[in-house]
Design a protein that fits this description.
The chain has 165 residues and is of the alpha+beta class. The protein has a domain at 51-164: Immunoglobulin-like. Helices cover 37% and strands 27% of the residues. The chain has 2 helices and 7 strands; from the N terminus they run H-E-E-H-E-E-E-E-E. The chain has helices spanning 10-66, 91-94; strands spanning 68-76, 81-88, 106-108, 114-116, 131-137, 148-153, 156-164. The chain has a 7-stranded mixed beta sheet.
């Protein structure tokens, strides 16, 4: 009678198992990284949508209360001055913007420094649809191109306004 011997080949199965495990781990890591990246992008889009919503509400409130629409803030004079431009949408309301010290427009830098006009700004007749500007000194280089500043008039604040060069 012949002897049948059965060899167990655990070595062979283990050798073939490692590449599969390695591929599975790599795929799981790639899926996790892609999911995390997608989640971050989703959160960024939510934050941008929230900023846009807050800014739109502030723009409407400024127009309703003060009769002006701010157009842009730009650094001029080699970064030493801030050029703030606005358009008058209601001259009867806009004229009161410069009447009292607490209502005078100011720019709040991202580091919290407030840039404002002097207490007695030069005023003139404001006309509907015309654009006007005022210059503010950029104290301690508080504002850089691309920064987001807040424009405040009285108690109304317009956040997330990007500074142009």
């Amino acid at each position: 009678m012949s002897d049948l011997t059965v060899k167990e080949s655990n070595e062979k199965t283990t050798k073939h198992l490692w590449p599969r495990l390695l591929v599975a781990v790599i795929l799981l890591l790639a899926l996790g990284a892609a999911g995390y990246y997608g989640w971050q992008q989703y959160q960024l889009r939510l934050a941008e949508a929230h900023k846009a919503e807050v800014q739109a509400e502030a723009i409407a409130q400024l127009e309703d209360q003060w009769g002006v629409r701010f157009m842009h803030v730009a650094l001029v004079a080699e970064g030493g001055l801030l050029d703030v431009r606005y358009q008058v949408t209601d001259p009867d309301k806009a004229v009161y913007m410069f009447d009292e010290v607490e209502n005078i427009p100011r720019v709040i830098a991202s580091n919290g420094i407030e840039l404002a006009m002097n207490d007695d700004p030069h005023t003139h007749d404001l006309e509907f649809g015309f654009s006007y500007f005022f210059l503010l000194r950029n104290v301690d280089d508080s504002v850089k191109p691309g920064d987001q500043v807040t424009i405040a008039v009285g108690d109304v604040e317009l956040p997330f306004f990007e500074v142009e060069q």
